[in-house]
Amino acid sequence: MSGNFVTTRFNAALGWARKFSLFHYPYVTACCGMEYMSTACAHFDIDRFGAGWTRFSPRQSDLILVVGTIPHKLAPVLKTVYDQMTEPKWVIAFGACTLSGGIYDNYAVVQGIDQIIPVDIYIPGCPPRPEMVLDGLLKLQQKIQTSEPDWRWKKKKS
Length: 158
Ligand code: SF4
Prior knowledge:
Layout: H1 10-19, E1 23-28, H2 33-40, E2 53-54, E3 63-67, H3 75-84, E4 90-94, H4 96-100, E5 121-123, H5 130-146, H6 151-157
Parallel strand pairs: 1-2, 1-3, 3-4, 4-5
Helix pairs in contact: 1-5, 2-5
Bound molecules: iron/sulfur cluster.
């Protein structure tokens, strides 16, 4: 064949566009919030990765960052916020408290938010350093790029 032409799959192009246009909803409840702010501000600059736009409406968000301790009282609120987000959507668990309850191994605290909502990326640490948060974000972007656009809907059906 002669001549130059570019060919790609629609899904690959869609994944590429999606991973650089993340609108995140910060669900911040506790001290990990300091590291969230540090990651978002100029020094670490999460905007470099196309995830700088913060939305405080779940309907305008496709990524929820769950940051901090989640007591059982807040669990239904988190579930409602997640349910209100439109598909496709992703979840990052930010910090030890969201992963496992962290140091709060007691009756009042949810021992891992994946008991309430599906989690795509787990970022450990108490609190995690901004570099770890950015690493988690890059891993999520990789996942978005390589996933079928409607992968979560398919998962629900099976
Ligand atoms: S993981 Fe540590 S820093 Fe983060 S909310 Fe829990 S106690 Fe605070």
